[in-house]
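pipeline stage [seq->struct] | target=Mechanosensitive ion channel-like protein | organism=Pedobacter duraquae | residues=824
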Amino acid sequence: MIKSALRSFLLFTFFFVAHISLSAQTKDALPGSKKADTVKTSFVARMQEFARKEAKESARDFENDKAILAQHKILDEVKKTMQVAKSYLRTGVDTTGARAQLIEIEENYKTAVDGVLTNKGTAQTFRNVTATSKILKELLGKAQQRKVRLDMHQQQLNTFRYQLDSLLNAPSLFKFSTDSAVLIKYLQQLGVVAYEVHPIDSALKRASNNVQGLLNQVNMQVFKLQTSSDEIAQYQLAMANNTFKREFGNIWEPASNYRPFDEIIDQASKKGMLTLYFYAENNLGKLAILCVLILTSFIYLRSLKQIYIEKELLNADMEGQLVLRYPLFSALLIVINMFQFMFPAAPFILNVIFWLIACVSLTILFYKFITRYWMNIWLIMVGLFLITAFDNLILQASRAERWFMLLVSITGFIVGTTVLFRGKKEELREKLILISIGFMAFLELASTLANLYGRYNLSKTLLISGFLNVVIAILFLWTIRLINEGLFLAFSVYTRQDKKLFYLNFDRVGTKVPPLFYFLLIAGWIVLFGRNFAGFDYIAEPLRDFFSRSRTIGDYTFSINNLLLFIVIMAISVIISKVVSFFASDKSLTTTKSNKQEKQGLGSWLLLIRISILAIGLFLAVAAAGIPVDRITIVLGALGVGIGFGLQTLVNNLVSGLIIAFEKPVNVGDVVDVSGQGGIMKSIGFRSSIISTWEGADMVMPNGDLLNSHLMNWSLAGNRKRMSIAIGISYDADLEKCRQLLNGILDAEERVSKYPAAVVQYEQFGSSAIDVKIHFWTKHIAEAYATKSDLIIVINTTLKENGITIPFPRQDVHYQPIDPPNSI
């Protein structure tokens, strides 16, 4: 196009010049102007026709060039799309894995509905329906996740096909050049692109058809799982509404339906392992945290026990120190009993594993600690509980199981009544256990009656609940006792700790369990006890809905669960920061200088550690509660206004605390002198710091004042201090001998630093003695004044022994009598 325009311009210039020359010659040759005008008009017309022709040709060339550019761009986009499509087809969804998962879900579905939707038997059982419901929810979740992934994959495949179709059908591709050579090359290029696109398009089409086939199977599976879950929910609701309804005939009547017991056991084991696998898979993080807490508690209790061994404080009978007897089993018991509530809706088999570990741990701790009689009672209770727990894992009813349940419930009733009426209550350490034993006897009697008259679900629930209530009560009571012992034993060895750091009443720790612990015990007992009943979920559902329901204030949506989660995370952060401050800043166990320096070094970082813990806690709390960032910005803006009006002093102290933490002009444990007030730096807080003065009081000083004061830090230079002693030597004394005696006294004193060396200096001739000044450095400022006092005693004794006197100022007063006045 550029060459054509240039050619036209040159031709136009040539004809214009020729026209001017011709006109000039014609005008000079012919005197008349008419012929010249005719020639001029003819030339203009020809030039105009030439211009129109050239303009059309230029426009056509411009359109061709623009079409070529668009075609190149479209073909480049086609190539890029093909490359992305190839890569996606290589790394896309695993259809083989999806089919395998569908087969696995189908097999697990058959296992889940066995005994409920298939092989039903005479009546449904609560445990069977509950286990089936949990498995179906997990399978439904897996199927829905697979459906979402397949939907996304199918959408992506369709997107690639649509992009290729839209690019290959663009009108610009079909604007052909008039130049035959250019056209032939372009058609060859289109042929190559079509050859490359065809296999990609076919692969996309095949993949789309395969995914669509999988989607159809998944949709059918999701529908079947959803329908089955709804049917199971109806069974659960019916059981909750008919808790006392008869399901079977009386136990002495013949059975109307029979399924081999080995099949029942096999079905129960498969369902139990399936529920445990699914739950563990979804809660691996919590299980890992549980293991970390157990390990941490074990290390702490073992270290505490080692301290008591070194200090020879362990009792032979471990009375009041049971938590230190076996640190591993104490850690298992405490952590498992407290942490199990972090596993909501856990399968019964997982709870049995937790309770089994806790029972074994407490049994080992009880060995030779409680009396033989109550040890036997505990073992009987644990044995009966484990028997009923394993029986509760059997999901489908049978006549053999009913007779077994009857035998166990009668045994439990006999044991419970015997303990209540003939037990050695005076040997019992926790009297509250008797209440749970009496309740157990009542429940076992009720289970016996319900079993006799065909109320299987009620009988089985009462059977497991009776023994569970006793075991859980004993486990919780001793867990609280061990926690209380652990706190008391810890605070007994950390004797120099400041109470304000942890906000605990040291006088009551270990002597009486706080009422809050008993409240938590009862609440936990109710939860674990109630889980065994069919109507528990329906009773608890309104409470769950109340806490999880979304509420709106203005533009902010929240739930009580989120608020409680925010409060709990922040509370845990504060507690952790205070625990770190409490134990890291304690020096009661320091025995060597190196350890002491290590403690002080750690203590100097306490403020930064606490700030980091609280900052991380705040971040996690905000993220967990879902608080919008723009709301935080508004709060910070309001806080800025408050700072501008009246919080300058508070902010100044907070910032000063950060400056102290980073610059470290003073550390925890340093000997300081602030405005004439000396003491030891006890703690550095966010707003203020505490200095333990030499008089015994704790001086609370705002960080801003501390930073702006004339702070003298004796520890910063090695805790040394120079002291001086001034004495006077008589004029007749041997000064050189006196110097040697004084230097010998200073060299013999271990508390006096040898570098820099002490100096004995004669100052001046005084009125009654030669003034001597002794300068020396003490190795530690805490020993300065005691060292000076002892040196004065030794110097005085040594000088007397060597006949060197220390004269005291003496003044002679002469009395001159005055003559009496003349009498009148």
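stage status: PASS
auto-comment: The chain has six domains: 1-66, 92-243, 261-532, 549-627, 628-718, 720-801. The domain at 628-718 is CATH 2.30.30.60 (SH3 type barrels.).
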